[in-house]
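Supplementary Methods. Inverse-folding protocol.

Structures were first reduced to a discrete structure-token string of length 106. This string, shown here, constituted the complete conditioning input.
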């Protein structure tokens, strides 16, 4: 039985100066956002998506915001179908280095 050894092929490697910029941007975001835990914000990402919610957590790479979902009461067509209030909020993890704008709303 013969095994061929295949060398792994690097598809992408960030340049050291890019890595340094990303690390500095993360640290800056932590310093600016950490004091606003449990406050409502509007966040715009680099791909132009906009979210509003409450900052509930931050870690080394992510900002976690609780995004309220609209309540859908039972409809007359299907009275057994409803959404419990336990599922009215979603925690959305956002990658720190993709954030473009964070606006404090409360």
């Amino acid at each position: 039985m013969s095994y061929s050894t295949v060398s792994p092929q690097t598809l992408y490697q960030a340049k050291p100066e890019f890595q340094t910029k990303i690390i500095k941007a993360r640290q800056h975001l932590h310093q600016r956002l950490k004091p606003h835990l449990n406050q409502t914000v509007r966040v715009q990402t680099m791909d132009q998506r906009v979210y509003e919610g409450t900052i509930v957590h931050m870690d080394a790479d992510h900002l976690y915001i609780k995004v309220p979902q609209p309540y859908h009461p039972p409809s007359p067509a299907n009275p057994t179908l409803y959404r419990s209030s336990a599922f009215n909020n979603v925690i959305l993890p956002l990658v720190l280095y993709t954030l473009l704008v964070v606006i404090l709303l409360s």
